[in-house]
Every structure is written in C-alpha cells, then in structure tokens.
Amino acid sequence: MAETTNLNIRIDKDLKEQAEIFFRELGLNMSSAFNIFVRQSLRQGKIPFELSLAVDPFYSAENMAVLRRSIQEANEGKFVTKTLDELRAMEE
Predict the structure, then answer these.
(1) How far apart are alpha carbons 69 and 83 in whole angstroms?
(2) pTM of the model as a whole
(3) Could you tell me which residues come within 8 angstroms of residue 47 by beta carbon, excluding any fewer than 6 positions away?
(4) What is the mean pLDDT of each run of 10 residues along the chain (92 residues)?
C-alpha cells in the first residue's frame, strides 16, 4: 500500500457538515471523497467538472423580479387556490 500523509484544509463548517452527510449517503467519508476528486483531476488532467463564472439563467434579473412580485402578491393574499380536480376541469 502507498505511504499516506495528512492534509489539512479549511472549509466552512456548514459546508463540511452538508458534505459529510452527502458523502456518507454514498458510502464515503470526506477523505475518500477528496481522494476520488484528486485522482480524477490527475487522470483527466483538469478539474473533473466545469468551472464557470456564468450565472445560472434561472437567477436572471427578470426571473428574480417575477419571483419578488409573486412573493409580494402571495404575502398580500393575491393568489388563487385550485384543487387538482378544478385544474383538470380547466383543461377540458
């Protein structure tokens, strides 16, 4: 077996906790997950996922304005409630 060494990294506490839960569900611990990341990076000769400064179009200024208006209308009680049967009836 290859000789191992320790590596200390700093990470946001909440992010670490979320990652530990996620990796545990995959049957991994943080050390194994990081080793997979490093091995894939070396195998591919790059970061094994896309890095981008592009903003998700979902969060565009237009979509965020619609979301803010919708939240405001909901808070003001300006929304319509329909049952599933009522929605199906509207399709006919």
Answers:
(1) 23
(2) 0.55
(3) 41
(4) 90 95 95 96 94 82 92 89 91 86
d(CA 22, CA 30): 10
Residue 80 domain-assigned (yes or no)? yes
Cβ pair 23, 29 in contact under 8 A: yes
> Within a domain: residue 40?
no
- 34: exposed, middle or buried (Cβ count in 10 Å: 0-12, 13-18, 19+): middle
Tokens for 47, please give them: 């970061």
**8 falls within a domain:** no
Tokens of residue 91, six digits: 């399709």
